[in-house]
Specification:
Structural class: alpha/beta
Strand order of the largest sheet: 3-4-6-9-10-11-12-13
Oligomer: single chain
Largest sheet: 8 strands, parallel, barrel
Radius of gyration: 26 Å
Number of helices: 23
Strand content: 15-25%
Number of strands: 28
């Protein structure tokens, strides 16, 4: 099916603000603001790069009314006039490229605080609409906001609105999203107050309405105010789509100029940070009903592709499409669309590893698995070499593909050798499930880019350390990947046993009872793929460690384990595989030995570096060889891509 992307490129007006197109950059935390309450150079450059790439509306990540409400999260100091000059620089750098910029303002996370009992230790008991248990630590009970605190907060909103206007922001977004503080007031599941801010539906909306009034009293009638809200909490007891329509009926009449709508709450976190398992355009479904209740523009987000974005705009159920991680993966995708270069848009894998994962798991600023320059644009600018270099890349997995691409973009003459008859390596071998479409898209993107850059790809050719072509190379990048671990257990030569990669390449043999030996991400994805293809299969995952999926990013694990329950996939941790028997797989458990009946047995014990060739080449050519990716240490594709990028970026004249 062919698409006309012009609908995405049409202008639109929100109150007094005219956007040059209907592409918005999602408000996402960056962890880049400094301790002095200003954004860092890295943060400003990050936003500027997306504006330069052609996005019409840039939303900042949530900035808190004050540092106490931020509870340790980096924020621009909206209550400090000393932060105005540098924040103005951020605004001007975005405006320079013809984009508008919206300041998202948050009154705090409330019960969603990540600090838990640490908050109490520092004298910062989390606030909420009512005495609710903290999400991350239910032993911590948030305290109810007092009427005096609510009154003071309304003054803080006026201060933030003044800050926004003085800095030159084009709009303000109220962060009422997904179970954060404002949502805690609006939702009966969290609001148990008996005063004027609780009880009736009208009272639960009062907090939000007073915020709009406070902002409007400062900014006047023509300054855009947008509102970010989840319309379907997607957990038992949370606000449903039907109940949210009553909220929209009220909010649509109170002075809000556009609505940023989606789904999810912290109880359904894989919709706040959508995973590849929830599918493309996973939150577009909230728009059709919302359209019946809203007279102002609708903004929608949630794993959109260019094509789903066009479809939603053409349906009339949304007016602006929001891209977050896709904008991180390729900040220039709007410009490429406008130039008719859809094939050049680097796809986001929706892996959550380097964007959300870095912030959640490492408390450091975001990056991107497929775009290592994200957040570090000033330091990672790809520049041309002054003199041409001859580069040999061995292995066409993600690391080798990125090394070849970046080296060629820098002007090198690149030859890429691959022992198989196709590029992508094991990465493409396992990209067979429906939820892995973006992985296949990424390999296709690399194929197109290497072709356009003139990279010579030599397939069905296994290089050796003695190959004469290596002697003439200025740089050699070895990315030979990994090999499957196959323990020497009795019965492993049984014809029922198939390797996990082969199960993707060849298909899973017939048989109702499938046992997967190993419980990492690869095993879990394989189990889901088999279940989706044939729900009647009886699938069991065995893992010797105490936890299945220990290498899975926590938010992705939410989707995986929910789907395990939906498909009835059995999970057995603390189960060490001892032997393949005629009946099935014998395992040792704390309760004793057991035999798990099996018709098909998939070996997914993990991977080990395939580093023999790399080491041989490195010994032969130590000054010009770099070994990258899984042949150093098996890991995620993003790590291999980053190492390939760095290898090519390290080339010097």
């Amino acid at each position: 099916m062919s698409y006309n992307y012009n609908k995405l490129l049409e202008p639109i007006k929100i109150n007094g603000m005219i956007l040059k197109n209907r592409i918005s950059f999602s408000p996402m935390g960056t962890f880049t603001p400094m301790q002095d309450g200003t954004d860092s150079e890295e943060g400003m450059r990050y936003y500027e790069e997306r504006a330069k790439g052609g996005i019409g509306l840039i939303n900042t990540g949530a900035m808190f009314l004050n540092s106490a409400l931020a509870q340790g999260s980096p924020t621009i100091a909206l209550d400090n006039i000393n932060a105005i000059p540098k924040t103005t620089v951020l605004v001007e750098r975005v405006h320079r490229w013809g984009a508008k910029i919206c300041l998202q303002v948050s009154p705090g996370t409330g019960r969603n605080t990540v600090l838990g009992d640490q908050a109490i230790k520092f004298g910062q008991v989390p606030i909420s609409a009512s005495p609710n248990p903290s999400f991350y630590d239910p032993n911590v009970i948030c305290r109810e906001m007092t009427l005096e605190e609510i009154d003071q907060m309304m003054e803080d909103w006026k201060t933030a609105a003044t800050f926004a206007q003085r800095c030159g922001f084009d709009a303000i977004q109220i962060h009422a999203h997904a179970g954060y503080l404002i949502d805690q007031f609006m939702s009966s599941v969290w609001n148990h107050r008996t005063d004027k801010y609780g009880g009736s539906f009208e009272n639960r909306c009062r907090f939000a309405l007073e915020i709009v009034q406070a902002i409007r009293s400062v900014v006047g009638p023509n300054f855009p105010i947008t509102y970010r809200i989840s319309l379907d909490h997607r957990f038992n007891g949370g606000r449903t789509l039907e109940e949210s329509m009553k909220v929209l009926d009220v909010l649509d009449k109170c002075g809000i100029d556009a609505f940023d709508i989606d789904a999810g709450a912290y109880e359904s976190q894989d919709y706040i940070f959508p995973t590849r398992y929830v599918g493309d355009a996973c939150m577009a479904y909230v728009c059709e009903e919302a359209r019946k209740h809203l007279t102002h523009p609708i903004i929608n987000t949630g794993t959109h592709t260019m094509e789903t974005a066009v479809e939603l705009l053409e349906s009339g159920n949304a007016d602006i499409i929001q891209f977050g991680r896709q904008s991180i993966a390729d900040p220039y995708f709007p410009k490429k669309l406008a130039e008719g270069r859809r094939e050049d848009i680097r796809p986001c894998m929706v892996c959550n590893e380097e964007c959300i994962g870095r912030i959640f798991c490492r408390l450091t600023q975001l990056s991107c698995a497929v775009n290592p320059a994200a957040g570090l644009e000033d330091y990672m600018e790809v520049t041309k070499l002054k003199t041409s270099k001859n580069v040999v890349v061995i292995g066409a997995g993600p690391g080798g593909l990125e090394a070849a691409r970046c080296a060629a973009e820098r002007g090198a003459a690149v030859t890429l050798y691959e022992k198989n008859g196709y590029i992508g390596g094991t990465f493409i071998d396992i990209a067979t499930g429906g939820f892995k479409g973006r992985m296949r898209d990424l390999v296709e993107w690399y194929r197109i880019q290497l072709q356009k850059l003139g990279v010579k790809i030599v397939l069905n050719t296994e290089a050796s350390a003695e190959d004469p072509v290596l002697a003439g190379a200025d740089y050699i990048f070895v990315a030979t990947g990994s090999a499957a671990i196959c323990p020497k257990l009795p019965g492993m030569d049984d014809p029922r046993v198939i390797g996990v990669t082969e199960s993707h390449k060849q298909g899973v043999p017939a048989g109702k009872r499938v046992v997967i030996c190993g419980g990492g991400l690869s095993a879990c994805d394989t189990a889901l793929e088999i279940a989706q293809a044939d729900p009647d299969r009886d699938i069991t995952i065995l893992e010797m460690k105490p936890q299945i999926g220990g290498d899975i990013m926590p938010i992705n694990a939410i989707s995986i384990f929910r789907m395990f329950d939906e498909y009835g996939i059995h999970q057995m941790a603390n189960a060490t595989v001892c032997e393949i028997t005629a009946e099935g797989v014998k395992v040792s458990t704390p309760e004793g030995d057991k035999v798990i009946p099996a018709d098909v047995i998939i070996s997914a014990f993990g991977q080990k570096p395939a580093n023999a060739l790399g080491e041989a080449i490195q010994w032969a050519y130590p000054t010009k060889t770099t070994i990258i990716g899984d042949c150093v240490k098996p890991g995620k594709a993003g790590t291999a891509i980053r190492e390939g990028f760095y290898a090519a970026m390290a080339m010097q004249d």
